[in-house]
Amino acid sequence: MSKLFLILGSINAATAVSMGAFGAHFLKTKIPEDMLSVFQTAVQYHFYHSLGLMIVGVLTLYFKPKKYLGIAGWMMFIGIILFSGSLYLLGTTTMRWVGIITPFGGITFIVSWVFIAITVWKWSSTNIGLE
Questions:
Q1: Cα–Cα distances in Å, from 100 out to 31, 55, 69, 79, 85?
Q2: Other CB atoms closer than 10 Å to residue 42's CB: what's the count?
Q3: Secondary structure, 3-state, 44-108
Q4: From the CB of residue 89, how many other CB atoms can be counted at a distance below 10 Å?
Q5: How far apart are CA 54 and CA 81, in angstroms?
Q6: pLDDT at residue 128 tops 60
Q7: Which pLDDT value is given to residue 122?
Q8: How many CB atoms lie within 10 A of CB 53?
Q9: How far apart are CA 83 and CA 104, in angstroms?
Q10: Distance from C-alpha of 18 to C-alpha of 93, rounded to nearest angstrom
């Protein structure tokens, strides 16, 4: 599971950087300023949660069982698709209806961080060498 989330995080980080460059260099003159801002929000959250996926990958090396971290990682990945994906579409197309999907992505992001907190809370520091 560690390897999977580290790979997903790395691929998503590369994609987020690519999307940021696409927005800054190509879309800057092609879409209205407010839609460029929406696109940039997608890039920011995409990148933050790519790092979050990598954090999950590293944490799975130390915390056992990995059940809650697995849930956190998948929720984070789904959040990237729902939240950032919907904002990418919202910013670059006329499909305004996709904005209804965005809050569901935000909720999955929140849930993913809560599951990380649950993992840390559940396991004592003596089991993992943390103080």
A1: 21, 29, 27, 14, 12
A2: 27
A3: HHHHHHHHHHHHHHHHCCCCCCCHHHHHHHHHHHHHHHHHHHHHHHHHHCCCHHHHHCHHHHHHH
A4: 20
A5: 16
A6: no
A7: 83
A8: 26
A9: 7
A10: 18
Range 62-73 average pLDDT: 88
Whether the pLDDT of residue 3 is over 80: the answer is: yes
CA distance 62 to 128: 6
Dist. CA 99–CA 105, nearest whole Å = 10
pTM, to two decimals: 0.91
What confidence tens digit (pLDDT) does each residue in 26-47 have? 998 999 999 999 999 999 999 9
The CA distance from 13 to 55, in Å, is 12
Whether omega for the bond prior to residue 65 falls within 30 degrees of 0, making it cis, is: yes
Q: Which residues contact 1 (CB under 8 A, 6 or more apart)?
A: 57, 60, 66, 69, 70, 73
